[in-house]
User: What shape does this take?
Amino acid sequence: MRRRTIWITAGAAAALVLAAATVPLLGGAGPTRADAAATPSPTVASAPAVPAVDPATLAALPEARYSAVIGGLMPFDRTVTSDTVFQLRADAPLFGAARTEPVARFAASDFLRQPTTVVGLRRDGDWELVLTPARQQLPSAAGGAGAPAQTAAWVPAASLREVSTPRARVVISTKDQSVSIVGPTGAVTKRFGAGVGTADTPTPTGVTGYLEQRYVDPTQGTGDHPIQLTSLHSSAADEPYGGHDGGLIGIHWNATDSGAVSHGCVRLDAEAVAAVNALPLGTLVTVE
Assistant: This one.
């Protein structure tokens, strides 16, 4: 079984190809969306005002990136079926449930020096509830209960610029060991067999993340098939793949693409990887 050092050298390869990148080892009020009831928002009479955050304070905040662990983020253990995709006008502060003090920073560019993809779930006054690619807690600190696989935070809506929102989503079934592409009407348009996590390093279930980024690294045995990074992380182990990638859950090609065979990632054949690769960044990924 191939160990998931894939992310370590994949990140390094990305840094070489994109010379400026540093890859570690591995607006305004709007209506509430239909799935607002499924989001972990606090119960308030009205949305609080957005606090001012000066540039020095913003720069000092930890970046909510794939390898970060930030306790002030909100666990997000729900499944949703619709979103709105944004990019950032500039670096933006992220707030926890109280929305009084910033807890992290969203960088306008991601680790590949491309515009950061932001997935919004709910508008509340001058705020947008968004998913983040960082962890809230490590599994080793969760006392055996399992760490959240996905996080959320509030961001000032004025920081966001709406872009095209995907019309399809990805649904992964660990029980059926399959990956489905579901269209806007809820109908399955494509379905593929998949390899999923073992009992000791399971693929997290009952949660929705998103396609965060992708790149090709032929040195890692995936050939010319792009590695699909999701915003999800392992709930069972800090680094189940033996690297330093934050326990990311990826979707990628592997010759062994069926059964409970991985450290949590989802393994696909070439046709299935191509189908997922055709989907835009920001596409929702639900694991059942």
Summary: Residues 27-162 form one domain. The radius of gyration is 18 Å. The helical segments are 6-17, 55-60, 270-277.
